[in-house]
Amino acid sequence: MCLTREESFTNQQINTVIAKKEKADPLFLFYLLKNNQNNIVKEYGGGGAAKPIINKSTFENIELFIPEDINEQKRIADILSAFDEKIELNNKIIKTLEEMAQEVFKEWFVRFRFPGWQKVRFVDSKLGKIPEGWSVKQIKQVAMVQKGISYSSNEISEKPVGVPMLNLANFLRGGGFNPLGIKYYTGKWKEKDLVQAGDIIVAMTDLTSNREVIGHPARVPKYSYWDKIVISLDVCVVKTKEVLRGFLYYLMMRKDFAFRMASSASGTNVAHLSKSVIEDYNFVLPSHDLMEKFNALVAPVFAAKNIYELENQKLATFRDLLLPKLMSGEIKL
User: Fold this and answer.
1) What is the pLDDT of residues 89-106, one digit of tens each?
2) Domain extents for the chain?
3) What are the two backbone dihedrals, phi and then psi, of residue 253, each rounded to the nearest 5 degrees?
4) What is this structure's pTM?
5) Taking the domain 115-286, which CATH number applies?
């Protein structure tokens, strides 16, 4: 579900809602539908179907409570949009921090212009000229790649019961963590199924037409109230030493890594990636000392991102809780 303020086109799989402006504020209608999205899918989308479908005639007959006073609708929409504006600002800051760290990675480990590079001798390797003392490795030689838990729909909850389960909704297109997609797992798990803050997770399935999610990484965030975390079967974790985490994360954020993963995925409508493709990926491993310097450089970036991501999650949760309370008059702002 999305809101557009510009002229655009949709295909037959999308219901377009155009508000009658004398009766409904478009922004308010967007928040109302978004807030009721899960209930609408459950009631009108074919029950437990894998791909729920709501046709146009069914969608038109969905009943929702809307305040008659359009000024009241606009007031509520303005309050809620303030939360989204703050979330958008946080996301811009996160993007800027990411771009800065990626540029340092590119300068040091792709262009080989790291501190003291002028004094280093370059030698031949199967990936071309590399600094002496560096080596060509496969990811499986420095990390363990492990897939997530298989689950049934009745073991998944939107409410905070069980343990947090990171899933495809937790990946931003192009890589990075989205805290708003969290679900909770109430089934059985073992100690080996847990992931830790700072671990790299990778999307193994993709529903997007351009494969903008599959093969892209995210970092498991550090939240004080998440003492145990699992991942879904559509996700794998890349477990490695602390000193390698920052380096491998930004290695996987690069376009050539994403292209290799996307081009190696199988399937047409739904793309699937084998973990062996990740394990067999070749890269140039720098010296231990340089990785430590890079780790120290990006550690504050990860810490700041974590703060903004956590704030976004809290803002989104509060925004979604606020709508029904504003409409009922329980809260007046």
Assistant:
1) 999 999 999 999 999 999
2) 1-66, 115-286
3) -80, -10
4) 0.82
5) 3.90.220.20
